[in-house]
Amino acid sequence: xxxxxxxxxxxxxxxxxxxxxxxxxxxxxxxxxxxxxxxxxxxxxxxxxxxxxxxxxxxxxxxxxxxxxxxxxxxxxxxxxxxxxxxxxxxxxxxxxxxxxxxxxxxxxxxxxxxxxxxxxxxxxxxxxxxxxxxxxxxxxxxxxxxxxxxxxxxxxxxxxxxxxxxxxxxxxxxxxxxxxxxxxxxxxxxxxxxxxxxxxxxxxxxxxxxxxxxxxxxxxxxxxxxxxxxxxxxxxxxxxxxxxxxxxxxxxxxxxxxxxxxxxxxxxxxxxxxxxxxxxxxxxxxxxxxxxxxxxxxxxxxxxxxxxxxxxxxxxxxxxxxxxxxxxxxxxxxxxx
Length: 338
Ligand SMILES: NC(=O)c1ccc[n+]([C@@H]2O[C@H](COP(=O)([O-])OP(=O)(O)OC[C@H]3O[C@@H](n4cnc5c(N)ncnc54)[C@H](OP(=O)(O)O)[C@@H]3O)[C@@H](O)[C@H]2O)c1
What we know:
Bound molecules: NADP nicotinamide-adenine-dinucleotide phosphate
Structural class: alpha/beta
Number of helices: 10
CATH topology of the largest domain: Rossmann fold
CATH class of the largest domain: Alpha Beta
Number of domains: 2
Order of helices and strands: EEEHEEEEHEHEHEHEHEHEHEHHE
Radius of gyration: 20 Å
Number of strands: 15
């Protein structure tokens, strides 16, 4: 156990790709909880594409991280000292207020208790049975309502959210085509996750491959990228198709505002429903999603990968893997032992 606290502070807003000098790691004393509070030791830090959004001051879905503030991030941590009967020492919780640091003082209403003695590993609550899984679950089921035998296309299909969304579409009896950036990821999708088709967008022409692999057109698109992949999908979109706009990773590092989709016209011609969402919109339904996802994981219907990097000091270097495609599955940083 460390005898001091380390905190990543946002020093300047990234321009383009995140630079290692945009944040600074500082040291301070471990904070002391007061009456009604507890001390959380950060065990796993979730590294997410949205960290890049929060570092910027673009118009976004929650306030950006202010300059000089601790970097925001979801964590799973352990309560190691408590002055409240609501948080028992030794229990594991998830928290959104701890951020990129070793320790944080938390109040009971700032954390969610994780299922104790669960048959799932702790990292599952950061991936398939956590916000990642919930994003896939609501983004696919609520926004697009996929029907049996429909063709569903997923971008960043081997990533944390995409891989779960594709498997939920398979559970619903859909034909699923996944788009990703390496041959190894394509193999995992087709051999292990039983996707019906895969496209390596870095090696193949996405539009030509979609034409071959989606002969009946595209009924549902789970969009994690925007950009050129979205345009290829829009070109082949079916009448009354649904597009779940989950993320736009292809533009997060752009220095200038990005022009809209070239094939925007097809949203009109094909009466397509396009809906953006943020997973927190569905917070009141998280228990139902957790129940379904846990059951599917235990039944072997959903597989997931976690990519666990080590050491708070490596947070920024690890985060950049999301933008180079070097992560496989949910990118997590282990900050301390469980
Ligand atoms: N709406 C919400 O509430 C919500 C919640 C969570 C996540 N999201 C969004 O969901 C998407 C996926 O997030 P995640 O956490 O699951 O990350 P992830 O897919 O595990 O990792 C990001 C992946 O994006 C791909 N990528 C990077 N740059 C790209 C580019 N320029 N063009 C195409 N693909 C690129 C890379 O995979 P390849 O090898 O395939 O290139 C990389 O591995 C992101 O857009 C994120 O913002 C939304």
